[in-house]
């Protein structure tokens, strides 16, 4: 049969053969071209993958946009084989978030010129002898995020109360939740071996003030020479006797009297005053707490600069406050002491403000016994800051765990100061320099703020004390309210020296600080613990915390459809669950796609 078919010359067989050849050749053409097209598409995708990984590294290294785009193009071109470079055009969309993470998107427009398909078209009678097929190849890479987190945790006295619905103290609940959060992120990051310090945590316990650590007394960012305009505001060095004279020259106070002996010529600062008081009581030394910098430096991350004295950090020194002795008709004496009276006044002057600033008492009084909770470190109640530490190694995890376990509850509540130091801890610049550079991509800087109460600053009377020197408040890290520093940068009534007005001022400063931090690409996560909507001051704190929080990159608010706020309203009973949700949020920040 096949021989007959081969030898037959009649036209119908030729025609049938031609008709059969068209689909046969078409199928062959399509098969060959499809295989080659798939090969070129895969080669382009491989080039995109290689360029994406390499470009992600350059982004993480902090390269500029122009450098990143040029690098991506070079890497893409070098890996295109066997695709002709002119046939593939690279498109790059860089991450929008320059401070950390984001998605790097790469795509390529590929022109493929078929080999056999034009022949098929000619057989079908089409006039076009050649054609091009446009292919779109895409790839997305989530940057390999590193994470730096400052835990800014309320250590005020109210944290010693029992958490609602739990039966346990709030601080104990917080310790467990915080340790679980750290260990969860540490375990996840432990698998990311190719990146140094993938997850770091720092701890900022706060109450009325923040303790930066006594070991930083000689740090360049501390005001060691008394240059800041607030450094000497509570001390009148003109009250010193001739032999122990203290004089100001070139902006610096020095011991110039002849009775100073070997100390003559030394700078008179709060650090020096601590050393002098230690001669009266060996247990006295600087506790490590600092005052808030004068406005606006209390609300930003401006580096300390001796040429701008206001930017330096001033050690807290709570002055000895005066006492009044009265005698009745029978000759009986009654002593009324101010809230933080811890030295004999050593002067007969009846002016209470003068008695407070009278400096000879620090040198003429005998051995001093300081009541518990009083003295020069009054209002310095927290443990020191723990800088950013790599928790992916056992030693680092132990450091943070021990720091959390060491927290203790005492004192008032100053959330703005806690947040300010949380920002400084994750910052890539001094005072703490363990963080990556602020402009490094692929790194998220996060501050988690938790508080169980409203901001507080107290008048002595509200604490059962007296205010003989008319300080208008107890001493804390704004100094005394009479100086007006607590009102700086706010619109509150500066003549209203009440606890309620102090809270209003601190709330306004907190709002400004939140905006400043977010504008510098700090991710803010806020948590309210056992705050009540029924209490005005606590409701205002809830509102402030919610407004302060950043927006999630991953979750939507089910009611509004807008990005969800990174704010959690917790109780003692569900605090652990809320921290697990925060852990999920932080995990999403560093997932590698």
Give the tags:
593 residues; alpha/beta; Rossmann fold; 6-stranded mixed β-sheet; 3-stranded antiparallel β-sheet; 13 helices; 32% helix; 16% strand
Walk me through the structure.
This protein has helices spanning 2-7, 11-60, 65-78, 117-123, 170-189, 270-278, 352-357, 361-364, 394-405, 415-426, 499-519, 536-548, 575-589, and strands at 88-93, 103-112, 133-142, 146-154, 199-206, 246-249, 252-255, 323-327, 333-337, 386-390, 443-451, 522-529, 551-556, 563-565, 567-570. 32% of the residues lie in helices and 16% in strands. It has a six-stranded mixed β-sheet, with helices on both faces. The chain folds into three domains: 2-142, no CATH class; 146-213 and 381-457 and 499-589, von Willebrand factor, type A domain (Rossmann fold); 237-286 and 289-364, no CATH class. The model has no long low-confidence stretch (mean pLDDT 89).
Per the CATH scheme, the topology name of the largest domain is Rossmann fold
As a whole number of angstroms, the C-alpha radius of gyration is 35 Å
Q: In one word, what is the shape?
A: elongated
Q: Report the CATH C-level class of the largest domain.
A: Alpha Beta
In total, the number of domains comes to 3
How much is the average pLDDT? 89
Q: At the fourth CATH level, what is the homologous superfamily of the largest domain?
A: von Willebrand factor, type A domain
- Assign the CATH architecture of the largest domain: 3-Layer(aba) Sandwich
Number of helices: 13
């Amino acid at each position: 049969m096949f021989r007959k078919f081969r030898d037959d010359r009649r036209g119908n067989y030729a025609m049938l053969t031609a008709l059969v050849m068209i689909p046969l050749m078409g199928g062959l053409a399509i098969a060959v071209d499809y295989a080659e097209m798939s090969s070129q598409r895969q080669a382009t995708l491989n080039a995109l993958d290689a360029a994406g990984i390499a470009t992600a590294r350059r982004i993480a290294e902090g390269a500029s946009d122009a450098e990143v785009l040029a690098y991506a193009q070079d890497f893409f071109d070098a890996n295109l084989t066997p695709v002709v470079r002119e046939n593939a055009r690279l498109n790059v969309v860089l991450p929008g978030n320059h401070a950390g993470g984001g998605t790097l998107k790469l795509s390529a427009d590929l022109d493929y010129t078929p080999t056999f398909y034009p022949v098929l078209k000619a057989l079908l009678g089409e006039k076009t002898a050649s054609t091009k097929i446009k292919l779109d190849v895409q790839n997305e890479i989530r940057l390999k995020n590193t994470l730096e987190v400052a835990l800014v945790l309320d250590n005020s006295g109210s944290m010693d109360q029992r958490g609602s619905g739990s039966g346990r103290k709030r601080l104990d609940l917080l310790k467990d939740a915080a340790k679980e959060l750290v260990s969860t992120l540490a375990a996840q990051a432990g698998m990311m071996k190719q990146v140094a310090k993938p997850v770091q945590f720092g701890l900022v316990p706060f109450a009325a003030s923040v303790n930066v650590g006594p070991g930083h007394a000689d740090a360049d960012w501390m005001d060691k020479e008394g240059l800041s305009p607030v450094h000497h505001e509570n001390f009148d060095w003109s009250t010193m006797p001739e032999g122990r004279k203290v004089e100001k020259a070139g902006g610096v106070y020095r011991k110039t009297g002849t009775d100073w002996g070997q100390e003559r010529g030394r700078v008179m600062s709060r650090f020096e005053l601590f050393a002098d008081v230690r001669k009266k009581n060996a247990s006295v030394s600087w506790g490590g707490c600092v005052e808030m910098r004068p406005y606006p430096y209390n609300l930003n991350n401006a580096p300390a600069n001796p040429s701008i004295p206001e930017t330096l950090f001033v050690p807290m020194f709570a002055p000895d406050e005066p006492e009044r002795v009265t005698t009745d008709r029978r000759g009986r004496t009654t002593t009324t002491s101010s809230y933080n009276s811890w030295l004999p006044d050593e002067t007969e002057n009846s002016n209470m403000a003068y008695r407070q600033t009278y400096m000879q008492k620090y040198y003429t009084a005998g051995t001093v016994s300081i009541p518990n909770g009083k003295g020069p470190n009054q209002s310095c109640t927290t443990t020191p800051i723990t800088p950013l530490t790599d928790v992916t190694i056992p030693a680092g995890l132990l450091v943070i765990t021990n720091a959390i376990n060491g927290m203790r509850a005492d004192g008032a509540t100053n959330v703005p100061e806690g947040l300010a130091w949380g920002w400084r801890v994750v910052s890539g610049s001094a005072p703490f320099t363990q963080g990556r550079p602020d402009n490094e991509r692929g790194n998220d800087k996060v501050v988690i703020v938790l508080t169980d109460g409203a901001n507080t600053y107290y008048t002595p009377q509200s604490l059962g004390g007296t205010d003989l020197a008319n300080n208008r408040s107890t001493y804390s890290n704004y100094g005394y309210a009479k100086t007006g520093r607590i009102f700086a940068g706010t619109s509150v009534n500066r003549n209203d020296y009440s606890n309620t007005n102090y809270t209003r001022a601190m709330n306004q400063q907190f709002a400004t600080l939140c905006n400043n931090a977010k504008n510098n690409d700090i991710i803010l996560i806020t948590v309210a613990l056992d705050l009540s909507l029924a209490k005005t001051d606590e409701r205002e704190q809830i509102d402030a915390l919610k407004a302060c929080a950043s927006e999630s990159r991953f979750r939507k608010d089910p009611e509004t459809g807008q990005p969800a706020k990174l704010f959690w309203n917790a109780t003692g009973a569900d605090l652990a669950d809320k921290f697990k949700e925060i852990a999920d949020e932080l995990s999403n920040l560093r997932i590698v796609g």
